[in-house]
Amino acid sequence: MKASTSFKILGTDIKGILLEPNMISHQDQIWLKMWQENSPELRAKAVEWRKQNALTRIERPSRIQKARRVGYKAKEGIVVIRMRVGKGNMRKKRPVAGRRPKHLGVTRIKPDVSMQQVAERRVLERHPNMKLLGSYYLYQDGMYLWYEVILADPSHPRIFKDREMRGKIAGLKN
Question: How many CA atoms, within 13 angstroms, populate the side-chain half-sphere of residue 35?
């Protein structure tokens, strides 16, 4: 009889961190597997998302476990928004008048903040009365990155009466 050998296979997280399969939930494992294999279901969703507005309010999060870790609860006063952000480096216009500088400084200009922070900022600009609980990566293609942003309305009665949620919101600086 052959002795069966078992190997511990490490799954890679979206950001490139190695994690053991039992460290992440089953739902996250499914999402991770779909993302790694670039599944047709996920690509079909991305096609729909491309047709929608850059900022789209959705009923429930796509990655429920990740949303709960960030602070999502299925109650009134909490809003989930899918934000689409363009990929690529920053663009700068070429100089039109005057002398041409030796090094134009047009290409290879990098932003100081991550695209996730850009998505959060843009959502908060559109919803000034809300507080940011958190956000997480959703999907990316050749042109766009998608993030889901969780917001809470501090003046909503359901949120105001919830002690735990009120404490979270009080600790936020945005």
Answer: 20
